[in-house]
Model the fold of this input.
Amino acid sequence: QQAYAPVQQAYLQRGDAGDLNWNVTLFPTYALAQEADMSLHDYADFVYRACHVHGDDDSVAHWQSLQAQQQRLVEWLRGRDKVRVRGANIDLTLSIKGRTFINACGRRNMPDGEIFTGPVEDSLGGHVRFDFPVTVGGREIERIELRFEEGKVVQASAAKNEPYLQHMLDSDAGARYVGEWAIGTNYGIDRHTKQILFDEKMGGTMHIAVGSGYPLTGSRNVSAVHWDMICDMKTESEITVDADLLYKDGQFQI
Done:
């Protein structure tokens, strides 16, 4: 990952400048189905539902509608500052002052469905326990818990593969800071599959990524690491922005 970091940064910078276009997707295979604890038939059905190309779905209409819905959220968030995320496993504050939210609606990923930004690097404070395991490089890290002070991870633990978690957080100076904060909006993704292309988009969840941020959001964090970690927000949870209620129990309130 450290060797690949300059390539990753060039990729992000060219993408932000409009000099590079891509769309990442996934073809259902036996191996991916096995990872998701599903038969290939059921997994393929899941993939098509997540992409909204299942049965009689009007796929173009769906993604255009999602784009419009998410743009309304992006506009509401523009110019705001203080975010507080509270739930059974999280009590986190952060700042989005001067940052830009991205409307992820199928242009770069398929499936898609999230709004995300790069929070102010030194603004995160509080704690979070992630409900779903992180699978990176063939390793699964379970029940990750992080505590932040002035934006930095100051305590980290995991029920499984904790040494690997600690090793990655010590990869470089940016690995203990957050490059992305996002809310998933794809309610066609209704289960965790150990495939981040799907899992991070799951409706009723939010995620943060330690490490590198996307320059287009205003993030200045640079790292060889970009690890998305997902927190369930479907029950007993809320997100407020400048004390206004944005999100409650897995649903937007505006």
Remarks:
- The chain has a mean pLDDT of 94.
- The CA atoms of residues 114 and 184 lie 4 Å apart.
